[in-house]
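Students often ask why we bother encoding 3D structure as a string. The short answer is that it lets us treat folding as translation between two languages. Here is a chain of 373 residues written in the first language.
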Amino acid sequence: MGDRSRLCSVWLGSETGILKGVSLSRKQAFNFCNTSQLSREQEVRALCWGDPAESELLVGSVDGTVKTFSTEKGTFTESRRCGDPGDGCFSGLAALSGSLVTCTECGTLRVWREDRSEPVTELNAGKSVCRMRQSPVHRNKVATGGKENGLKIWDLERPETPVFTAKNLRDDWLDLRRPHWVRDMAFIPDSDKVVTCTSYHQVHVFDPSSPRRRPVLEAEFGEYPLTALSLPAAGSTVTVGNTQGQLGLLDLRGRGLVCGCLKGLAGGVRALQCHPSRPLVASCGLDRFLRVHSLDDRSLQHKVYLKSRLNCLLLASRELQEGGGAEKEGGAQEVKEEDEDEVWDAMEQVQEDKPKRKTTEEQQTQKRKKGGD
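And here it is in the second language, the structure alphabet:
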């Protein structure tokens, strides 16, 4: 079992269906695939650990299969069908006491056991679910939310009804209904509160113990839809990312003020994860880069180009093991980030030649020719 205070490697799922492993200590990247024919049906949409020792990685694909990847052997060891492609893509995966929890975009949340082909628990979390997250403390609790589908918290030991359902936001100053679209959420450590981000660039904090069932904190970041969030170890701030590649830090203790931004991204953010004990955050998305930023000085620590659009990531404290299915990615070397000012200063200046003015004699000659015509 690896030291949880370390960050040795990062696992990422791509649109092409390839599981990518990046060793930050060795500065190498590897592709893992269990088939020679890639298709968009194998696109990886969700990742989670199968055990606390980080020896098994569960990989959810668009075609409804969940593959088990052994990080010790470096190969895929098992594959099982956990839904129908018609249910939509996976919006979340979780491991629970030897069982597997899946949730799809149509809102079907299921609990699967290894010895059964049919789910032992199935519930409807509402339509258009964008994300399902598991509580890191109370593993039997999960949160769901999506487009016009507010935050719900479920106890999988009593799945009949949610233990918490958020109420609609209050109407705006024109008494018009405010739409809601939950894109991601996280359980705040050492409390029962849950923080969410929305497609309307809002950050909300909900307290299930509050009788209001509305956000106890409302904040905004930028002007574009927020797509992912993650909580640093301290839990007093939240890191959010949006569709324009902007990363921001918001303070959850006061009024939700923006306390910093992280630079360097060039495409929409699809996944974020903060290190559980160190001030680091990893991000990936449409620009095909894995980036690791420091939350202390907000500097870029690692930047790795991985050739494919990336959907999800998972931090690992174990060193990446090369297996029989590993293929080294030649173009995935670490890239040093240059200062933007230095880049602009180093560019060659190109001066546009100004059009030459005609002399008085040339102008008179031209007029004579026109008069003759």
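Translate back mentally: The helical segments are 340-346, 360-372. Keep this in mind for the problem set.
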